[in-house]
Amino acid sequence: MNKMKWSCPIVGLDLDNTVINYGLSARKFALSNDMHGIENISQLREFYKRNHQDKAWSRVQEWIYTEGLLFATVNNGLKELLSQLKTFDYPTYIISHKTKVSVNGLDLWGPARHWIAENLGNYFEPLSEIVFFEETREKKIARISHQKITHFVDDLQDVLLEPNFPSNVRKFWIKEESGVIRHPSITKLERLEELLNYV
Ligand SMILES: [Mg+2]
User: Fold this and answer.
1) Centre of ligand 1 from the C-alpha of residue 84, in Å
2) Cα separation of 180 and 188, whole Å?
3) What angle do CA 69, 133, 16 make, to 5 degrees?
4) pLDDT per residue as tens digits for the range 85-141
5) CB contact set of 170 (below 8 Å; sequence gap of 6+)
6) What's the 2 CA to ligand 1 centre distance in angstroms?
7) In angstroms, rounded to a whole number, what is the distance separating the alpha carbons of residues 53 and 45?
8) How far is the CA of 1 from the centre of ligand 1 (A)?
């Protein structure tokens, strides 16, 4: 008998800025607030951080994650990735750290679920068993372990570098622009479909 064991890859994807691209939402926000030279969400975040406007940034995020979702797009290479994963029959989950309500009490989970159903409904079905929202980063990491994820993609290296991040999960950092990898355990992807080289 063949004793070689093959375990099926199980892919986990972060939601905000990994599955969902808020580039257009950020540009739309910047334009209507007379801010110039903002091309993407990182530049918008940088602007507020640089000016120590954390409270204002929370309100911007609230807009981005609710009304701003109207302008959000499916991230580059995601559909190509998902159709291949579907062909291979590799389980794929979305695991998001997102509070249920915003600073001003707006529902954040509902609009996000709705966006996923509208834009990626045929890849993530049934939504309730495939998409997970967790209130804290700790719970997000616990969920990654619980779903037995083997490959996880996030736009934040901080998440991948948390001390309790499971060591048997391969870590992928998605960032279109150039950037410095902070730990050798991390692989950088410029487009999500590059993940296919590793599963
Ligand atoms: Mg994210």
Assistant:
1) 22
2) 9
3) 40
4) 999 999 999 999 999 999 899 999 999 999 999 999 999 889 899 999 999 999 999
5) 150, 151, 152, 187, 198
6) 41
7) 10
8) 44
Q: What are the tokens at 112? A: 């996000």
Proportion of the chain in helix, strand, coil states, percent, rounded to 5: 40, 15, 40
Q: Which DSSP state fits 193?
A: G
Query: What is d(CA 137, CA 151) in angstroms, rounded to the nearest whole number?
Result: 17
- The class level of CATH for 1-19+75-199 reads alpha beta
CA distances from 68 to 20, 87, 102 (A): 11, 32, 14
Residues, CB-to-ion distance under 5 Å, ligand 1: 14, 16-17, 155
Give the chain's mean pLDDT: 94
Asked if residues 169 and 149 have their Cβ atoms less than 8 Å apart, the reply is yes
Domain ranges across the chain = 1-19+75-199, 23-71
